[in-house]
Structure formats: structure tokens, C-alpha cells
TrEMBL record:
A GO molecular-function annotation: acyltransferase activity, transferring groups other than amino-acyl groups
Stated name of the protein: Uncharacterized protein
Signal peptide start and end residues: none
Matches recorded under InterPro entries: CAT-like_dom_sf (IPR023213), Plant_Fungal_Acyltransferase (IPR050317)
Top-level taxon of the source organism: Eukaryota
């Protein structure tokens, strides 16, 4: 979409047979009757309680003590991580799975968490291919995967454990899961039970993480008439545990990770960030 926008701004053909569909309500219809094959309570929806308030009743915690640290992972370093994590596995883990697994373990170690604590990542999962969206569709088809592990397992088991946990959680969100959510959201259960969307919960904080991966976005192919950008980075977002993965401006497959970390954990993060142990 962004590349096509740039081409249109320069008066060029956007190579699309028709205007891209973005608001066609008939594309993703619920089944009649609805068929809910998966549990969505506690995942995409939750029931507010006095101890679990709605969004807006919480807030930022310690934003003044958060440092946005940029970690640069070279192509060779990522290749080493992938080889280490994928040893004995027929198909290697992806660059995203491996980099995130490494950061999950690094953040967990830097935070000094107890072995018995649970740590969860919230990962955005694109549903376009999973629901066979038409070419050019750019509507919102995003759900979240929630890989979870104990701190003890993350740090005592090899990198493969974290990568496999991430892989399995994302793979679970297939087309059937997306369609099940469409049916559940249209079944009336949300209204009857007074459920709220977890998508608007308060910011993710320690011991958990959230990640936005922009690794496949063609930022450096954008051109609105003044040439391609020389650098791309997210805006200031001082929420501890909110990670952004972006392709390096070098264009060689290396990755820049923007990591908001509490100031008192920064030195520990730096010390283990480039270790493969």
C-alpha cells in the first residue's frame, strides 16, 4: 500500500487491476449459524472485574525511567542465532522468530526475574494470507499470538525452546482460528457476557513483552517524489517491554531492535544482548 501510494504521488502506475478493497463487509462474513471452534474468552476478550479494570483506569508506570535502546544485530550475528536455534530441526526458524526469541531471553535476564514467574509476548499476526484476502487488501486483519514460558525455562533451556514457543503460538492462528473469532464476535456472546476487547488493555509491562515487527515492510522502496528515505525508525514510545523490529538501513538483512528498558536494567541488557549463550 505504501509503495503504491508513493507511485501514485509521482504520477506512476500502481500496477493494480482495480482499486484495492479495504472496506468490503462481505469479504469476511460469519457463518450461519456461528461455529466457534476455539476459546476466545481470556484471549481476544476479557470480562472486567474490580481487580481487572477497563482501559483508562491504569496508566504508564515509570515512563520517566525508561530508556529507548537501539540494538543492531548484523546479518552474521542473526545467521549464527538461527543456526544455533535451528540445530537438529529440518526447517530453520525465521529471522523474526530467532531475533525475538533472543530478545525475550535477553530482556528476561536483564530484568532479574524469579524463575517461577511467567513471561508472555503479545505478537501481532497478519490474517490476510490466512483468510485468503484479495490482492491489495489493506484493511485491519490482525490478531495476537501469546507465547508463554516460565522465566526458569527461558533461561535454563536453549534458544530453541524460546523460538519453538514463539513459532507454535503464531502457527496456531490459522485461517480456522481467524474465522472462529469472526463467528464468536458476531454470536452475541460479547454483549450478553459484558466482555471487553483485550486489544485496548493497558500497556504491556514487565514481566511481559509486546512486539511490532516491521521486518517485511518495504520502507526503503518508498518514494513520494523526493527519493527513498535514508533512515526509518519508530516514534518515541517509552513503554518498558514494547519492542520494535525494523530492517536496518544497510539493506543487508541486518535488524535494528528498538527496546524500551528501565534505566536500572540497561547495563545488564547491554552485557548480554550480543551473547549467544
Amino acid at each position: 500500500f505504501l509503495v503504491a501510494w508513493g507511485r501514485a504521488a509521482r504520477g506512476l502506475d500502481i500496477s493494480a487491476p482495480s482499486p484495492p478493497p479495504h472496506n468490503h463487509l462481505d469479504l469476511f462474513r460469519p457463518r450461519d449459524p456461528p461455529v466457534v471452534d476455539f476459546e476466545h474468552r481470556g484471549v481476544e476478550y476479557y470480562r472486567p472485574t474490580t481487580s481487572n479494570p477497563k482501559q483508562g483506569e491504569g496508566g504508564h508506570h515509570g515512563a520517566d525511567n525508561v530508556i529507548i535502546h537501539k540494538a543492531h544485530f548484523t546479518k552474521d550475528f542473526i545467521a549464527g542465532l538461527r543456526a544455533k536455534a535451528s540445530e537438529g530441526r529440518g526447517r530453520p526458524f525465521s529471522r523474526f522468530e530467532t531475533t525475538l526469541a533472543h530478545l525475550w531471553r535477553t530482556m528476561t535476564r536483564a530484568r532479574g526475574l524469579s524463575p517461577g514467574e511467567d513471561s508472555t509476548i503479545r505478537i501481532s499476526v497478519d490474517g490476510r494470507r490466512r483468510l485468503s484476502a484479495p490482492p491489495g487488501y489493506f484493511g485491519n486483519l490482525v490478531l495476537w499470538a501469546f507465547p508463554r514460558s516460565t522465566v526458569g525455562d527461558l533461561l535454563s533451556r536453549p534458544l530453541k525452546h524460546a523460538a519453538q514457543t514463539i513459532h507454535d503460538a503464531v502457527a496456531r492462528l490459522d485461517g480456522a482460528y481467524f474465522q472462529s473469532l469472526v463467528d464468536f464476535a458476531s454470536s452475541g456472546a460479547v454483549e450478553r457476557e459484558g466482555l471487553e476487547k483485550t486489544a485496548v488493555l493497558k500497556d504491556v509491562l514487565c514481566p511481559d513483552l509486546e512486539v511490532d515487527s516491521w521486518l517485511t515492510f518495504p520502507f526503503y522502496e518508498l518514494d513520494f517524489g523526493a527519493g527513498s528515505p535514508s533512515y526509518f525508525m519508530p516514534s518515541y514510545f517509552p513503554t518498558e517491554g514494547m519492542l520494535f523490529l525494523v530492517p536496518s538501513y544497510l539493506g543487508d538483512g541486518s535488524v535494528d531492535a528498538f527496546v524500551p528498558v528501565f534505566q536500572h536494567n540497561l547495563d545488564a541488557f547491554k552485557q548480554c544482548c550480543y551473547s549467544m549463550d
